[in-house]
Specification:
The protein has a single domain, classed as 3-Layer(aba) Sandwich (Rossmann fold), CATH 3.40.50. Helices cover 31% and strands 16% of the residues. The protein is built from nine helices and eight strands. The protein has an eight-stranded mixed β-sheet, with helices on both faces.
Length: 277
């Protein structure tokens, strides 16, 4: 007789849809998809209890390639959509995904306030330091001296440091992974999804089409802190000194629930009570 109380065991393939990805050959986003399906299998929740929300860009195609509920939003708006969904349906596992252009440029303001609100959402950002879908212009994380047809002499602008900014803005979990290590990336995803509060997972995801030199990232990545830093000031200082290729969990602050004031309203009912006359 089968034990009806036994937990259902899932495999990565249970979370892969029949839609074939149309990313360029060698795109790092394939590694993100592989890691995410492995992570969801480890978490043990059925696909109908998971929602993946994205904005616009190559990386934001990801929801269609999973069997979870998906919402492909507009440019830069993944986080407010994911926040609204999580507040309305807190029992769902809501995961926001996107790219560096989508999340840190037009979505930059939403990024800051998602960190500050500290709602229970992991944000997986596939950072290739270039706008891939719109043919290779610099993004907020592009190096100032990177030359292209659209920026022949480079931008000359200091690149955005999303991880340090996330710590300063109030995120309580900040980590970086690499698509060349899908198993290690899957583990970071599990940690980020299980985290109670806003979790930023920055993912180095090479773009071989517009940034072929990024194929060398596999030789450049290195371990980050041996132990996650718990003090935000120390974590921010470490991230400002980091070369952008350290992988692992850099910052782990108090989880939501340990200090309730970090997110004064976490459910729709609580928000409604605040506006009751």
């Amino acid at each position: 007789m089968n034990d009806l109380a036994a937990p259902i065991r899932f495999e990565a393939k249970d979370f892969k849809s029949d839609v074939k990805p149309i990313w360029c050959p060698g795109c790092g986003d394939f590694g993100v998809l592989a890691a995410l399906t492995r992570a969801l299998a480890q978490l043990g929740r059925p696909a109908e209890q998971v929602a993946v929300v994205s904005g616009i860009g190559c990386s934001s195609r990801l929801p269609a390639y999973t069997t979870a509920y998906g919402f492909h939003g507009v440019h830069g708006r993944a986080l407010p959509i994911a926040t609204g969904l999580k507040l309305a349906r807190p029992e769902l596992e809501v995961i926001a995904v996107g790219g560096d252009g989508d999340g840190y440029s037009i979505g930059g303001n939403h990024f800051l306030h998602a960190c500050r609100r500290n709602v229970d959402i992991p944000y997986i950002v596939m950072d290739n330091r270039v706008y891939g879908m719109t043919k290779g212009q610099p993004s907020p994380t592009t190096e100032p001296d990177w030359e292209s047809e659209l920026s022949p002499e480079g931008t000359g602008l200091r690149p955005f440091n999303p991880m340090a900014l996330a710590v300063a803005a109030g995120a309580t979990f900040v980590a970086r992974g690499f698509t060349g290590d899908p198993n290690g990336l899957a583990k970071l995803m599990v940690d980020a999804i299980r985290w109670r509060g806003f979790a930023l997972l920055e993912v180095l995801s090479p773009c071989p089409t517009f940034r072929p030199e990024q194929k060398e990232w596999k030789e450049t990545v290195h371990p980050g802190p041996a132990v996650p830093i718990e003090d935000p000031a120390r974590a921010a200082a470490a991230l400002l000194e980091d070369d952008g290729f350290g992988v692992g969990v850099f910052f782990r602050g108090p989880q939501r629930g340990d200090k309730p004031h970090l997110c004064a309203a976490t459910t729709l009912a609580e928000i409604e009570r605040e506006f009751t006359l």
